[in-house]
């Protein structure tokens, strides 16, 4: 497996202005069976999201892309199990950096350990496809058949500080 990590830091106000559409993503979240049931999913307590966003001034976005073995047909479940050590290492690094900056980690909503679950950027209303395309020049790949993992898994997380 090949792993690549990209980071970009910018003013949170700019990121909110250019990449957040909370109403659009809340409609999508409501269609998901995890809505209201998973720790990292909406609905959140009144004012929680706006409170976090108002306390922070900067955002550091981390993109981790993992290229899966070319000769393997892997379901999403198998691919997530295979990439768990890489994702854990990235998440641990993000949490350590966030603690050093008194920051707030978003992303890895489907973390391996429920205690490590964080709301995703999408749960806070951010458009990940646009983030990847416009800030990193990357395309978010989707499953070719709805069950198999795409050839490259892309994980996006952020530290708000």
- Portion in strands: 15-25%
Distance between the termini: 32 Å
Q: Order of strands across the widest beta sheet? A: 1-2-4-3
Low confidence ranges = none
Q: Number of DSSP strands?
A: 4
Report the C-alpha radius of gyration, rounded: 15 Å
* Assembly state: single chain
Outline? globular
Main beta sheet, described?
4 strands, antiparallel
Short summary of the structure?
The protein is 37% helix and 20% strand.
Write a concise keyword list for the protein shown above.
single chain; 161 residues; four-stranded antiparallel sheet; globular; alpha+beta
Fold and architecture overview:
- This protein is of the alpha+beta class and 161 residues long.
- 37% of the residues lie in helices and 20% in strands.
- It has five helices and four strands.
- The protein has a four-stranded antiparallel β-sheet with strand order 1-2-4-3, sandwiched between helices.
- It is globular.
- The chain starts with a strand and ends with a strand.
How does the SSE layout of this entry go?
Elements: E1 2-11, H1 12-19, H2 22-30, H3 48-55, E2 58-67, H4 76-100, E3 104-107, H5 128-136, E4 152-160
Antiparallel strand pairs: 1-2, 2-4, 3-4
């Amino acid at each position: 497996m090949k792993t690549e990590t990209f980071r970009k830091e910018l003013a949170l106000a700019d990121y909110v202005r250019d990449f957040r559409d909370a109403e659009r993503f809340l409609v999508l979240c409501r269609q998901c069976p995890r809505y209201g049931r998973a720790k990292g999913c909406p609905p959140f307590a009144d004012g929680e999201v706006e409170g976090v966003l108002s306390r922070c001034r900067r955002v550091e976005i981390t993109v981790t892309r993992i290229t899966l073995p070319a000769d393997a047909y892997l379901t999403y479940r198998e691919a997530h199990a295979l990439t768990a050590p890489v994702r854990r290492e990235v998440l641990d690094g993000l949490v350590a950096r966030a603690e050093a900056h008194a920051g707030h980690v978003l992303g890895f909503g489907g973390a391996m350990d429920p205690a490590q679950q964080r709301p995703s950027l999408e749960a806070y209303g951010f458009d990940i496809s646009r983030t990847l395309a416009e800030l990193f020049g990357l395309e978010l790949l989707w499953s070719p058949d709805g069950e198999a993992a795409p050839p490259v898994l892309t994980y996006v997380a952020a530290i708000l500080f």
